[in-house]
Design a protein that fits this description.
The strands form 3 sheets. The chain has a 6-stranded mixed sheet. The chain has a 3-stranded antiparallel sheet with strand order 1-13-5, with no helix packed on it. Strands 9-11-10 form a 3-stranded antiparallel sheet. The N and C termini lie close together (10 Å). The chain has 6 helices and 13 strands. By secondary structure, it is an alpha+beta fold.
Length: 262
């Protein structure tokens, strides 16, 4: 089985040995409101905790497994900064980022407005992914995974590439002043990513905050960051928009050199 052509293949200059894929609503068996578009069925909801029929979610995950040739290493995401080696994940563990230098291991993050950040070094020695909502960003999840990857590579100055996947866009992510306050504790220029939206309210630029976090750890080659989950209901699930909704998956892995590229 090949990946659905409606899924996203990140447009970034990753090494040939690195593969990445981000699912959309399309290509599964879930019924509305978890469907492939508003009001229809055949959705690829991958989240077991989203309220969907578990049998449909498992069927969707089986389709994804068949397309990848491997089972993604799912995390139990808690909006923190814990990073794990995806190769050690057998059952979901409490973490919001994972990395691996093992070929064939698929590091994965579940999303429905939070931003997935995909990473690789320019030589393809190590790949990683972070689930970066505002709490994770404030906790330093991006900085943590970059440091973990460089430590695994054995080079604190290794050049990394980053791809910012679909997330709620800056025109729709309304937050309170406490979010900006939390961000400013770790990102000195965080206020630049907030626009007033009324008394005590702001619109937050999640990709902009991600770029600040990446810059803080010396990652300057950053791609993506343009797809908005909230404003594209035909393509993406959005918790902020719909509340009852599905989950996408963002994934990254290394080829062994003997596999057919996905």
């Amino acid at each position: 089985m090949t990946p659905d052509p409606r899924w996203i293949r990140p447009d970034w200059p990753a090494p040939p040995s690195v593969r990445a894929l981000i699912t959309t609503r399309a290509g599964g068996v879930s019924a509305f409101p978890y469907g492939a578009a508003p009001g229809v069925d055949q959705g690829l909801n991958l989240g077991l905790g989203a309220g969907d029929d578990p049998a449909a979610v498992l069927a969707n995950r089986a389709r994804l497994h068949a397309a990848l040739g491997s089972e993604p290493r799912w995390l139990r995401q808690v909006h923190g900064s814990t990073v794990v080696d995806a190769a050690t994940v057998v059952e979901p563990v409490a973490a919001d980022a994972s990395f691996t230098d093992t070929t064939g291991v698929v590091a994965a993050a579940m999303i429905a407005d939070c931003m997935p950040v995909l990473l690789t070094d320019t030589r393809g020695r190590c790949v990683g992914i972070a689930h970066a909502g505002w709490r994770g960003l404030a906790a330093g999840v991006i900085q943590a995974i970059v440091r973990a990857m460089r430590e695994r590579i054995g080079d604190p100055s290794a050049e990394l590439l980053a791809y910012l996947g679909p997330a709620i866009g800056p025109g729709h992510f309304e937050v309170g002043v406490e979010v900006m306050t939390a961000m400013r504790e770790g990102l000195p220029r965080a206020a630049d990513a907030f626009v007033p939206a009324g008394p005590g309210k702001y619109f937050a630029d999640l990709p902009g905050l991600g770029r600040q976090a990446l810059a803080q750890v010396g990652v300057s080659r950053i791609y993506g960051g343009r797809d908005c989950t909230y404003s594209e209901p035909q393509r993406f699930y959005s918790y902020r928009r719909d509340r009852v909704t599905g989950r996408h998956a963002a994934m990254i892995w290394k080829l062994s050199g003997h596999e057919d590229p996905v």
